[in-house]
Specification:
It is a single chain. The chain is α/β, with parallel strands linked by helices. The chain contains 10 helices and 5 strands, in the order βαβαβαβαβαααααα. A 5-stranded parallel beta sheet has the order 2-1-3-4-5, sandwiched between helices. β4, α4 and β5 form a beta-alpha-beta unit. α1 packs across α5, α7 packs across α9 and α8 crosses α9.
Length: 206
């Protein structure tokens, strides 16, 4: 019987997934953990076909926990299941080594479908992400690697500097900064500076 580990601090999520699994075509065993300590303890005791990880955990950065899990268990499939912004965090999940990503707004039957796919060695990401990545070819995460200059600019943008300030600091034109900014937003999938700051934070750890 396939065994799943849910890492999520919201009890209602476990209740909803348990109910969905009871309606599934086959039996599953669902264990749960509310933080990284419990998750790693479960991993040390049992083998799991899939780990379902919420990256919005209060005590630990979920994407950092993803890397920790994969460092200790490199072959472990991990599904990111979160309410965070899909367009940004699906890319970061892929970049971090996750096997799949589902937003919590999706129907429960979609989640169970992901369980089936991932437990059999497949991948499960939003269709638009495959389209962005050159028609479904595997990606290194972010659609296109950022250039050294773009990495420099994203860091300054994340610190709150304006385009004009960045232009003066790097001795380039304001138009050049604007072009780099457009490319950064396109490559990362961020829609605004808040999301861009979140992307930059995660890029520091990749």
């Amino acid at each position: 019987m396939p065994r799943l580990l849910l890492v999520d601090d919201h009890p209602l999520v476990e209740v909803a997934i348990t109910a969905a699994l009871q309606r599934a075509d086959r039996d599953w065993v669902l264990d749960s953990a509310v933080d990284d300590i419990e998750a790693m303890a479960h991993m040390s005791r049992s083998a799991y076909q899939l780990v379902i990880l919420d990256i919005g955990l209060p005590q630990v950065d979920g994407l950092q926990l993803l890397k920790r899990l994969l460092r200790h268990y490199p072959a472990q499939p991990v599904l990111i299941y979160t309410a965070q912004e899909e367009e940004v965090y699906a890319r970061l999940a892929l970049a971090g080594g996750a096997s799949g990503f589902i937003n919590k707004g999706q129907p429960m039957q979609e989640l169970v479908k992901a369980f089936e796919t991932l437990s059999q060695g497949g991948k499960y990401f939003p269709a638009w992400l495959a389209t962005d990545n050159d028609g479904g070819n595997e990606s290194d995460g972010i659609t296109s690697p950022l250039t050294p200059k773009e990495l420099q600019i994203i860091g300054l943008l994340a610190q709150g500097h304006s385009n004009l300030q960045i232009a003066e600091m790097l001795t380039i034109s304001n138009k050049t900064v604007s072009t780099h900014k457009k490319n950064i937003l396109r490559k990362t999938g961020a829609n605004n500076l808040f999301e861009l700051a979140a992307v930059y934070k995660e890029l520091q750890h990749l």
